[in-house]
Design brief:
Length: 347
């Protein structure tokens, strides 16, 4: 198995069979080896720097009904909210003072946010904070819409593919959503020029190691600048309420493999990882992550953006706790830096 890890490190790819074999092995020494190699690569490219992103959850309205997600349309127990233009700008102001130089506007798929409304927000953020990057994470939109958002100044776009297998995609989503459209959105985003992020959940219901192997091969093919991967976590008011959470060790192993496969990728230690384990964020960094995304949403709405049960929004996950975050990173030998933290240009 270590040979496969070495091969991945040297050639940045494996076959589906090799990935499947690697992901089936639950040998701690293999996990340890992958982590050590991933940490080495990360260090070569990014040194000890950790990039931070201020996450602003602009809306928990969603027209979709994904079976795993707490803010799905059918969940009547969610108290829905939308942030206004000025609320979003206020979050950025606060974030800028705290040292954030990237703002991530994330939300459910909410048609209330027209291109006009979003491009106005993006333009104003870029005007007021010209030293900052804007990342959008607002789901599937038309190519024209993505083009307008890019022209308005948005730099990056996150859209997890969720699973690269058609048949598994069908188990996680109702009809009307398709993997094909998802992939097309991702290719469009890349073509337009966004630094693009894809990704998936580890341990989502029905997921097999073959599915995960396909996820890695899809990431290889797309070569996104960012990758979002975290454990699946159940939410009590979804059809998956009784499903087990994803595994911490397997998630960490995948993060290491992704670092080896896409060495320069911007890879966050996700909130879901912190929700799964109190040391999730640290463990993610040690496994090869180089980004953290603390919550910068107005405190009053944080408890309403619950994608899964026990989602943390305070303490270490809160942007106001940046000093704690810095301390935590220092403890493991890393430093939080206040830079935009773009994808490294090739020499
Ligand atoms: N557990 C973990 N991650 C989830 N997401 C949505 N619901 C859950 C859940 N129950 C992830 C999806 C989505 C991202 C914003 O959050 O992968 O793309």
């Amino acid at each position: 198995m270590k040979d496969y890890i070495q091969k991945l490190q040297e050639e940045h790819c494996l076959t589906k069979e090799e990935f499947t074999a690697l992901l089936s092995c639950q040998d701690k020494s293999v996990y340890d080896y992958a982590r050590e190699q991933a940490a080495k690569i990360r260090q070569q490219i990014f040194g000890r720097d950790i990039y931070i992103r201020g996450l602003i959850e602009i809306s928990n309205h969603c027209k979709n009904d994904c079976y795993y997600c707490g803010i799905r349309r059918s969940n009547r127990r969610v108290s829905r909210y939308r942030l206004t233009h000025s609320q979003i700008l206020d979050c950025c102001q606060e974030g800028h003072e705290l040292g954030f130089r990237t703002f991530v506007l994330q939300g459910g798929e909410d048609p209330w946010y027209t291109d006009q409304i979003l491009t106005d927000v993006v333009r104003d953020i870029k005007k007021n904070f010209p030293d900052c990057a804007v990342t959008l994470s607002l789901g599937e939109r038309s190519r024209e819409s993505y083009e307008k958002l890019y022209a308005a100044g948005a730099d990056r776009y996150l859209l997890r593919h969720e699973t690269a297998s058609e048949e598994h995609y069908r188990k996680l989503h109702p009809d009307g959503l398709s993997l094909q459209n998802r992939k097309e959105c991702l290719w469009n985003l890349k073509k337009i020029g966004f630094q693009t992020g894809a990704g998936f959940m580890v341990g989502s219901p029905g997921q097999t190691v073959e599915h995960l192997a396909k996820d890695l091969l899809f990431l290889r093919e797309l070569s996104p600048q960012m990758v979002g991967v975290g454990p699946f976590l159940r939410h009590q008011d979804t059809p998956f309420a009784d499903q087990p959470n994803g595994s911490l060790q397997l998630t960490l192993f995948l993060l290491s493999l992704i670092r080896l496969m896409l060495p320069k990728t911007l890879l966050p230690a996700t909130t879901a990882l912190s929700a799964l384990h109190p040391d999730g964020r640290k463990l993610g960094i040690l496994a090869g992550c180089n980004v953290v995304m603390p919550n910068l949403s107005p405190t009053a709405v944080r408890e309403k953006y619950l994608l899964y049960d026990h989602k943390p929004a305070t303490g270490l996950e809160a942007a106001e706790s940046i000093e704690l975050l810095k301390k935590q990173m220092k403890e493991i030998g890393y430093q939080v830096v206040c830079q935009r933290g773009d994808y490294p240009q090739s020499e």
